[in-house]
Amino acid sequence: MPEEIRRLARDGKALQPEAVSSISSSLSIVGKIIGNGALTIFGHLEGEVRASTIVIAEGARIEGEVSAEELTIGGYVKGTIHANRVKLNSTAVVEGDIFHRTMVIEGSDASMKSARAIVRWNRNFG
Amino acid sequence: MVFAKAKVDESHSDQVGGSAQEAIRRLTRDGDASQPQEASSISSGLSIVGKITGHGALTIFGHVDGEVRASSVVIAKGAQMLGDIVAEELTINGHVKGTLHANRVRIGGTGVVEGDIFHRTLAIEENARFEGMSRRNENAIDMQSLAQTNGKGNGTPVSLNPVS
Questions:
Q1: Taking all residues of chain B, what is their mean pLDDT, rounded to a whole number?
Q2: Do the domain assignments include residue A6?
Q3: ipTM computed for the complex
Q4: Among all residues of chain B, which has the CA nearest to that of A23?
Q5: Is residue A29 in some structural domain?
């Protein structure tokens, strides 16, 4: 049991909640999320989100603008993305423009359910 | 000294670790501890303007301006909340301005509530601040009471749309 807690704490999910935010899969937010620090989204968001590090987990759904220094996407995003470093996992689906300094698109699985990013701009805005 | 230290630890685990440990316990029981997705938390560096709805546990350390609905809500010490809260279980150690609907409400020693409370059970700790009306209701969070509350238009207005 203590090991479990330690692992969760290390993953930043449970015991360091002051520094790390997470929106569970059972939660929906309509509105604007703005702040510093790390944010992991498993649930649904309709609106703008801005934070230092954002992880949009597989199964998550964002409709709106996403701004971050570091952004990892495994879920669905519909909207404009601004981030210095963007990483699209193989499960990511992005509909919108991505403004970035560096971007990684992970290889897809056989089903080609891969990151479908429409990248129109590659702007260095650092 | 030893006693005092133990007391501090206890209150700390009650405010922060308590909910987290509870979430962990539940997740471990569900056999899905590797994906602790049921517990949400809004860190102190984060502000949300809008509506938060869902199930599961939610702990707020940051700022929320809008309506919150979840099964278990904890407004941690230092958190600022402006808007109505609907929850089965609600613990407040931070600052809340709005109408509260919850079966079990607990205002901790650092909690400040400005607004009315509709509850089944209510606990107010020493040094807590509560300014408003409290009304006991066997079904504090059923839909009817919610509709009535919304209809009357009391409580803080909630912005459903993202503020641009």
A1: 76
A2: no
A3: 0.71
A4: B40
A5: yes
Split into its structural domains, chain B has a count of 1
**Domain total in chain A:** 1
- Check whether B7 has a pLDDT greater than 70: no
Interface test with B, best of A5, A32, A63 (most B CBs within 10 A): A32
Residues 6+ apart with CB under 8 A from B136: B119, B120, B122
Measured distance CA(B8)–CA(A123) in Å, rounded: 51
d(CA B24, CA A79): 34
* Mean pLDDT of the B2-25 span: 46
pLDDT in tens, A69-122: 999 999 999 999 999 999 988 888 888 888 888 888 886 553 344 444 444 444
Q: What is the CA radius of gyration of chain B?
A: 16
Average pLDDT of chain A, as a whole number:
79
Does B61 touch chain A if contact means CB atoms closer than 8 Å?
Answer: yes
Asked whether residue A126 is assigned to any structural domain, the reply reads no
**List of chain A residues whose C-beta atoms are within 8 Å of the C-beta of residue B41:** 17, 20-22
For residues B89 and B101, what is the distance between their CA atoms, to the nearest angstrom? 9
**Residues spanned by the domain of B43:** 34-152
